[in-house]
Write a structure and sequence with these properties.
Two copies of one chain form a homodimer. Chain A is mainly alpha-helical and 304 residues long. In chain A, 61% of the residues lie in helices and 6% in strands. In chain A, strand 2 and strand 3 form a beta hairpin. Chain A binds a DNA duplex (30 and 30 nucleotides) through residues 2, 5, 7-8, 31-33, 41-45, 47-48, 61, 63-67, 106-108, 117-119, 139-141.
DNA sequence: TAATGTATTTCATCCAAAAATAAGACAAGC
DNA sequence: GCTTGTCTTATTTTTGGATGAAATACATTA
């Protein structure tokens, strides 16, 4: 009856995912041991995770015999929901961007404002510092590195991405994981077919991020991959909203699908060129929007 | 008689640097207040720093009147000497590279091995994690991401740098800080003129790093700057030794000087091309060395 | 024999209190 | 009026113990 810890929840989800990947159905038997090995973790948390699943009625323990799968897990439930720290980071970034936070601030003040404990806050500040959003002051306190409503950052960001992402497709070790193209295609198609709602923005952002990060990973160059992942982390803090409407979603997704087709055909040169113009277009978009300075910022992500 | 804290030591050094930059000589008077303002810090640690300098005989306090500078600080003492955490990071990276550390390891084991406290260790691990050298395991412990003696990383690193550093010189906002070229030139000339010793390796590395980071900063693109700084941080962990002998130092420095001349003349296109071939040459060098796999690794930095 | 069940050990985090240190205010001296 | 000296307050860091969780070893059962 103890509430499951984060690791245990995580393991429970991954176990269901493993079951799905292996195509197991109701009546199959699971093994604590092999699950623990596959998840690279000891049996203890796996046991707890299975207990958790048993409480939900998905599996049943047979004493001294094993664990029986009762029903195949249907549709993916939620996927990774952002934890409390992630959420606080987004709130801090938003408040800073909209000018609600001063240039310099102490840890205690942040703890009070966002009602989080010190260890969490410190991890959070460390992450923000690595993204070059803040730095420690000598002595006490922290300082934000960019002013609120820093417009030039958008152009710099896209110019940086233009340097590495198109070239990543041309790296000698480039190799896509099997099935990746198809999975991405499916996700994009679903986005296009489903009706657009405000709440789709986060899912759309994550799909976008996965697309670019997946290609960077395929480059085989860990530094390109790392740089793109960083870009996504930063963007996640300020861009979880999408203010360009559904027609831009369509254009964006079509361009992605075209790149996927091109890559499947093996024409990396062309894909690289497409990526370049894709990013250029996105840069223009941002810039045009940035002119009024506030509209995209005040659209609130995570409000619900 | 209390031992100076890290901030105080830092301030003491920076005060000396300020004195030098302002061209003050023996007999000049320092003010706690203005120093505190310039250093963006309260008077308390500045006072302590000055007390520290007084104990070393560099300044003298005159009660209720001020602080007298006794002797102009001559040659830069050490420059920033790496703190204990930095040192431990280098040791960990080296031990990992040479295979002395296993793929997975617990925090306590690291605390025992390197004799550091938990908070220091945690900061250190967080930094290593941001450099993509390690990651948390689910459950307890940490895992190194790259195997020891990972040769492919060198080529990937240089291919990444080739994407961004030459292009950084062509960014529209490119602007060098006044005096930067001259200062860099001086440091390079001194390196070339001074006799080469093993202990010069660290200074040489830092000059190198400052050269590349300075150009990246001048690009006016914060993401390029940030990426190059990250590269330097990573390189610092494994490349503090220099195993190519003095002749390579000469070649390297000459190439840097040539770029400085070209930039001074305003020809950024040519400078960009020079940077490209500079990095290509450095990549070749690494690769040729990497063939035997161990020599450069076992040459120990910081052993004395 | 290979799995689960149970107990022990090791490890990491959390919490509260105390110590250290910086920031800020006020008084005193030149 | 500006400086340094002194004091108070606010913030941060450290520390030790307590709690909780994971890894590991051992016993038990099909």
């Amino acid at each position: 009856m103890t509430s499951p810890t984060k690791l245990q929840q995580d393991l429970a989800e991954r176990i269901l995912q493993m079951v799905k990947e292996d195509g197991l159905g109701a009546g199959a038997w699971l093994s604590e041991n092999s699950a623990a090995r596959r998840l690279n973790v000891s049996r203890t948390p796996v046991r707890a995770a299975i207990d958790h699943l048993a409480r939900q009625g998905l599996v049943r323990r047979h004493p001294n015999k094993g664990v029986e799968l009762l029903s195949a897990p249907a549709g993916m439930a939620g996927g990774a929901l952002p934890d409390i720290a992630e959420l606080a980071m987004v709130r801090i970034a938003r408040d800073r961007e909209s000018g609600k936070l001063p240039d310099e601030i102490s840890e205690l003040e942040l703890m009070r404002r966002y009602e989080i404990g010190r260890p969490e806050l410190q991890r959070l500040l460390a992450r923000l510092a690595d993204l070059d959003m803040i730095e420690r002051k000598p002595g006490y306190g922290w300082r934000f590195l960019h002013g609120p409503r820093d417009l030039s950052a958008h152009d710099e960001r896209y110019r940086f991405r233009l340097l590495i992402e198109p070239m990543g497709l041309l790296e000698p070790g480039f190799a896509l994981a099997p099935g990746w193209i198809e999975e991405m295609r499916t996700r994009h198609r679903e986005t296009l077919e489903r009706p657009w709602r405000e709440s789709s923005a986060i899912g759309f952002f994550e799909m976008n991020a996965d697309f670019h990060e997946g290609l960077a990973a395929a480059s085989g160059n860990r530094f390109i991959h790392s740089a793109v992942r960083r870009q996504n982390q930063m963007r996640r803090l300020s861009n979880y909203d999408w203010t360009f409407g559904f027609e831009r979603v369509v254009v964006n997704s079509r361009e992605h699908l075209q790149m996927l087709d091109t890559l499947e055909a093996g024409d990396r040169e062309l894909a690289s060129a497409l990526m370049r113009s894709h990013l250029r277009r996105a840069m223009q978009l941002r810039r045009a929007d940035g002119l009024d300075g506030t509209s995209s910022i005040d659209a609130v992500a995570f409000q619900n």
